[in-house]
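Protein modeling request. Please complete all fields; requests missing the sequence field cannot be processed.
Requester role: graduate student
Desired output: 3D structure, token encoding
Chains: 1
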Amino acid sequence: QVQPVESGGGLVQAGGSLRLSCAASRAFAPYGLGWFRQAPGKQREFVAAIAWSGSRTSYADSLKGRFTISRDNAKNTVYLQMNSLKPDDTGVYYCRSALAESVYSAWGQGTQVTVSS
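Delivered output (117 residues):
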């Protein structure tokens, strides 16, 4: 499919964990995938990204240490492990196809993450 497909969102208490998944076609995401999020009333922001090859990953500075991005090349799937979640992490999490490093195209439909206090 042209658009990546996210899954794994939900409701979790503060301090808990969630793992998001994003599946994509390599034909439309030849470099890798990135995660972005949008909190209510705020602009969409970068979370993390990973390339299909090598060990290259990138993170928003504020999320390093709590969020981990990984991949399963056999499944064309990227994961976002989110630990020690805070209410400020609430929002819609989007996956986006990467054509090259920091060059993105199609957005997924998003998955809602809600962290209760």
